[in-house]
Design a protein that fits this description.
By secondary structure, the protein is of the alpha+beta class. It has 6 helices and 6 strands, in the order αβαααβββαβαβ. About 40% of the residues lie in helices and about 25% in strands.
Length: about 140
């Protein structure tokens, strides 16, 4: 799996890593979230400092970080809930580049002793593709 992940990173021409978010990452996390992303991910908008603090302090939230042109840039986040439900967001400027899929594969390696899964609205085609490519177990829901 690690070798496959390296091939994806080479293809993306960047270094992607996942690491646990800390309170010092607060403003970086708020910068990742825009209204469109929040709505698609069913996250409260506006994504205030208080909401971001809650994500960091009270959830198992991991940052998706890139090197490339901006070393240490936070470009997304992955949350692992107590029941192993996994949710993810990627900043709109980094979508459709394989970042979310690669990050999910890295998280699966870190939590290899757990059965991670995703709760996805089938209308959210992008999240569905990420979960499928990362070989995640998918449970469907409908926001209607």
């Amino acid at each position: 799996m690690a070798q496959e992940n390296n091939k994806i990173a080479d293809k993306l021409n960047m270094h992607i890593e996942v690491k646990r978010l800390e309170i010092r990452d607060l403003y970086k996390l708020t910068a990742v979230m825009d209204k469109e992303t929040a709505i698609a991910a069913n996250i409260e908008w506006p994504f205030t400092r208080e909401i971001a603090t809650n994500f960091i302090n009270n959830y198992n939230t991991w940052g998706i970080w890139t090197g490339g042109d901006c070393p240490g840039s936070l470009i997304g986040a992955i949350e692992i809930k107590e029941d192993q439900e996994t949710a993810y967001v990627v900043h709109k400027n980094w979508r459709n580049a394989g970042v979310a899929t690669f990050a999910m594969q890295l998280i699966k390696e870190k939590f290899s002793d757990k059965q991670l899964w995703c709760f996805i609205n089938p209308q959210n085609r992008a999240s569905l593709r990420v979960a499928e490519k990362a070989n995640m177990r998918i449970v469907y829901h409908n926001n209607q």
